[in-house]
Amino acid sequence: MNGCLICGSIVSGENIFCGECGRFALLLVRKCSRCGAFNLIPSDNRCFSCHGKKLYFDSIYSHYIYCGAVSTVISVMKYSRVRYYAEIIGANLAGNIPEEIIKGRTVIFPPMTFFDKFRRSFNQAEIIADKIALRHNLVFDNKLLKKARKTKPQASLTYAERQTNLKNAFKLTRPVENENFLIVDDVCTTFSTINTIAKLLKQNGAESVNAVTFARTSQYFS
After folding, report:
1. Strand partners, 72
2. What's the mean pLDDT when you consider all of the chain?
């Protein structure tokens, strides 16, 4: 038995919210077929998130919309440095990912600089990725990606600024030709980080790159 991450009430299995708090946790079900973002009309190719943008990843699956109870939990995890929240979120996400998105893939995550990881004491994406790899018996490569330089916090930047901010920010530590990868992160905002890593992998011969995040921001929800 676990406790609801919002109110502490007992919940069963890998649930993270009780019935009441779960009313304020929105599953992401209306998805753009191209980038996986919430879309009022999923078949509409004028998605606000990806229209006119070059995508290097093959698909993104996000379980929740980043708002309400979900955004509260993620904020507590990151800014109050609550490591066990990342472990609970990872277990929950691992139990809800469609098999076709992850099957046969090497699991990776966006790395932090040494200083940033030291300051927070953990990389939540690494913990979530490890949970997914263990649950689905996938290879977990926690050394493939290195942060080549320090970047500005992404949260306050526009899409264009994020692209500039991430230019040459990551490097590979080994060849990746013909491999299939799964990038795992806690939140996807503009997909800049995922797209940058996917581009690096594809340019170095990776076969395909999918991504999974616990939550996805949306212009329709706050």
Report:
1. none
2. 92
pLDDT in tens, 143-160: 999 998 877 777 667 767
172 by DSSP, 3-state: which?
Answer: strand
CB neighbours of residue 113 within 10 Å: 15
Distance between CA atoms of residues 132 and 19, nearest Å: 25
List, as one string, the DSSP characters of 67-109.
Answer: SHHHHHHHHHHHHTT-HHHHHHHHHHHHTTS-HHHHTT-EEE-
C-alpha 69/C-alpha 6 separation (Å) is: 7
> How sure is the predictor about 86, in pLDDT bands with cuts at 50, 70 and 90?
very high
User: Encoding tokens for residue 78?
Assistant: 């990151």
Continuous segment of H or E residues that includes residue 147:
strand 145-147
Type of residue numbered 99: E
Q: What single-letter DSSP state applies at residue 158? A: -
- Sorted by where each starts, the structural domains of the chain and their CATH numbers stand as 32-216 (3.40.50.2020)
CA angle at 71 for the pair 29 and 124, rounded to the nearest 5°: 100
